[in-house]
Write a structure and sequence with these properties.
449 residues, alpha+beta, 2 domains, two-stranded antiparallel sheet, 17 helices, 61% helix, disordered C terminus
Amino acid sequence: MKLLVGLGETVLGPGKLSGRLANAPLVFATGWILFFWLRREIGLIWAVVAAGMWWVLPRAVEGAGIRVDRFVYLEPGMVTFGVAAVALGWWWYRRGHWWLAALAGAFMALSVTSKVSIAFLAFSFVFLIVLRREVARGLVAAAAYVAAFALVFVAVYLPAGMVSGIRYMVAFQAAQRAQGHPVTILGARVAHPPWWANLYFTLEGFGPWLLVLLLAAAVFAFVPRTTALAAYVAVCTALLLVFYCLVAGNALPHYYYAWTWAVYVLAAIGLSSLWRLASRARTRSRPGDRRGRGVLARGLVLVALVALAVSGLQTTRAIRDERPTGFALVASVLRQHGEGARRVLNDGYPGWQFLPYLGGRVITRHTPLYLSYAAAGGVFGAIAVLPMERDDVARFVRADAARLVHVDVDGVELYILRGGRTLSAAGGTLHIDRKGPRLHTASACCQPA
């Protein structure tokens, strides 16, 4: 995935546009993969429904808008290649050709090298081998899958130094697991969230009523009987949930993106099953009762489809009406208050929120750059404080409220120094200078020690 984003930046130059243009074809391709995979399994119309849900339904993350895949995350590439691997695995199950298993392994390697979090999904192929009940053909397929996976994995990682690249990734993940990731859950800021945090973010991302609708539709994928396809997708979902909820040790608001496709597929299978059930309803009841049950079942399906369409239209409208928010507006707010050049002290906001708009002008507290800048006497003209991030900063801004202008910039809590005053961090403690010392701009003092 990083290679694709890098290719986009090579062609279009660094910036938000190149990253988004690298993401967009992948997101669009995922819908087409779902369509071609499902059209012979559940029918053309229901395959369109599954792909349509992927294309138009919300996958929101706080701070990133109603569709997280419009931002440059690793997840879109990971999911696109992962879904392709799952679909190719199913086609191997149906047809038995070893080269389909090899392609499934190759695409799974592309998915894992996009982001290793999806590695558990590879075990779904084991389920297909067991389901097919052909030992010899299953062993050949497993060998082809593993060989193709290894070949593509090495080919992708080799330019990154292979061993050193993997060591760095493992060390990074271990440090991240130990340090935790501050997230807000039910109004509380926690670094090590509970195991159900990613389920909570799923609820937040879909919204309660849409998630209930999708889960209710998914139930009918297993009623009155469970098909092999439904069982396969359920296993894929379970593998992802086990990793993200019980193994990963961290939770972030966008992690649920990994299994949204599976929720859509199960919902589409469930709706198609309910529709067919209504069409061939045969009970021992009188003909009038049988007709009434069929009408009720079809009515429920139509209501669900209308609700999904409404949600899709709302998502489309929200994207159409999007405007710059948060850190995209901070620079203009600072200029309005006469702080167009001084640096901003960041306490708690992740770099992806401010770097595209303010770049190196924002210095995050307790980083090497911050320590060297403070030691050299560097000053700040404003503070961006993530609510509930640190008690000491909260006490500081409360104690000096008279010398600070508080501006809520679409959720970014910005505190601007009044009357030309500046903020320094000498000795590791924040101080407001009443006289307003000379302006410090970017220089050698601002570089990491």
